[in-house]
Amino acid sequence: MAEATKSRTFEEILFSVIEATQDTFNAYLQTEVFAGQAKKKLQPIEADVVGIIGIGGKRVGYIILAMDLHTAKVVTKKLSMLEDPDR
């Protein structure tokens, strides 16, 4: 029980979130994704599509998914199960 209440470090939480995201993309979209450089501060991101997910609770912050247009279309196509997600 003491292990469950132990405070986790930023790096431990970061690893868990990255691993969960990769597992989800792999399981549901049959797509392998790789994490970019993780930072504790928000900085400008160069990407065609950016998704921002707010996290609340004991730890508060944001998870940002950034991808180029081609990757975003592949993900959208698989999520929506449409042949042409632009329609």
Question: What can you tell me about this protein's structure?
Answer:
It is a single chain. The N and C termini lie far apart (52 Å). It is globular and about 45 Å long. Helix content is 41%, strand content 16%. The protein has one domain. The chain has 87 residues and is α+β, with helices and mostly antiparallel strands. It has helices at residues 2-5, 10-29, 69-80; strands at 49-55, 61-67. The chain has three helices and two strands, in the order ααββα. The mean pLDDT is 80. Strands 1-2 form a two-stranded antiparallel sheet.
In total, the number of strands is 2
Evaluate the radius of gyration: 16 Å
Low-confidence stretches: none
- End-to-end CA span: 52 Å
What is the chain-wise order of helices and strands?
A: HHEEH
- Strand % is 15-25%
Q: Which structural class best describes the helix and strand composition?
A: alpha+beta
Q: How much helicity do the residues have?
A: 40-55%
Spatial shape: globular
Topology record:
Layout: H1 2-5, H2 10-29, E1 49-55, E2 61-67, H3 69-80
Antiparallel strand pairs: 1-2
Tags for this entry?
single chain, 87 residues, alpha+beta, two-stranded antiparallel ribbon
What does this entry show, briefly?
The chain has one domain. It is α+β, with helices and mostly antiparallel strands and 87 residues long.
